[in-house]
Amino acid sequence: MSTDLLPDEACGLRERKKRETRRALNLAALDLVEEKGFGAVTTEEIAARAGVSARTFFNYFPSKEAAVIGTTSEELESYAAALQEDVPGEPPLESLRRILSGMLAPASVDRGLRAKRRRILLGEPSLAPALVGNNIRIENALTAALERRLGVKPGATLEPRLTVALAIAAVRACIEHQQNGGHGRLERNIDAAFERIAAGLR
Q1: Neighbours of 156 (CB within 10 A)
Q2: Under a CB-based contact definition with an 8 Å cutoff, are residues 108 and 78 in contact?
Q3: How far apart are CA 43 and CA 41, in angstroms?
Q4: Do domains 1-67 and 71-202 have the same CATH topology?
Q5: Exposed e or buried b for every residue in 20-58, given b needs 16+ CB within 10 A?
Q6: What is the per-residue pLDDT across 49-60, written as a single tens digit (0 to 9) for each?
Q7: From what superkingdom does this record's organism come (predicted)?
Q8: pLDDT, position 5
Q9: Residue 113: what pLDDT?
Q10: What is the 3 state secondary structure string of 137-199?
Q11: Chain centre distance of CA 101
Q12: For 1-67, CATH number?
């Protein structure tokens, strides 16, 4: 019997290896910055720590700042595609809640990794511009996707950007609430926050 992978299996294996490499690079970047400080770390060192070539590093991240933050273009595209899809009976705000909550799902997020990333970002002021830029990229990608879903021209109305901005702010507030000793489970707090936003938007 042949041991060749079927097309779907091969695709699944490639995607899993890509995710593993991306995570290894993100972890390597965080570990090195924590050990040496951001200014002393190079992309070559991050690649070597992750066990890949410097060329491979740039297939995943455009800079060491991006490797520390961890968001990739592929992830942004997948979030945007999920929002652009018009799910029957699901208003845009609910789609945003589902997508943003999925980004934080325990099955897909290492809580220790997220805590380390936050600690490093707070402790490295030089990363602030890159972090702001990353947040803007996410907001712009989701806004453009929502505009396409609603069938409006880019910038023709404030509603898509306002909806996305409110959704992102709600998730950020819930995370900060929990990380600063606030009560309640993150997922439940996010649901409650979106219910309040939805009531206000109506």
Answers
A1: 10
A2: no
A3: 7
A4: no
A5: ebbebbbbbbbbbbeeeebeebebebbbebbebeeeebe
A6: 999 999 999 999
A7: Bacteria
A8: 52
A9: 75
A10: HHHHHHHHHHHHHHCCCCCCCCHHHHHHHHHHHHHHHHHHHHHCCCCCCHHHHHHHHHHHHHH
A11: 11
A12: 1.10.10.60
CA-to-CA distance for 201 and 199, rounded, in angstroms? 6
CA 199 from centroid of its chain's CA atoms: 26
Q: What are phi and psi of 94, to 5 degrees?
A: -70, -35
Distance between CA atoms of residues 82 and 155, nearest Å: 21
What average pLDDT does the chain have? 86
pLDDT in tens, the chain (202 residues): 444 555 555 567 887 888 889 889 999 999 999 999 999 999 999 999 999 999 999 999 999 999 998 877 778 888 999 999 988 899 999 999 998 887 765 445 566 777 787 788 778 888 888 888 888 999 999 999 999 999 999 999 999 999 999 999 998 888 888 778 888 888 889 999 999 998 886 6
Q: Which of 50, 63, 66, 62 is nearest to 17 (CA)?
A: 50
> Which are the contacts of 43, defined by CB distance < 8 A and separation ≥ 6?
54, 57, 58, 63, 64, 67
What contacts 37, CB < 8 A, 6 or more positions away? 124
The full set of domain ranges for the chain reads 1-67, 71-202
Token pair of 96 as six digits: 């945003």
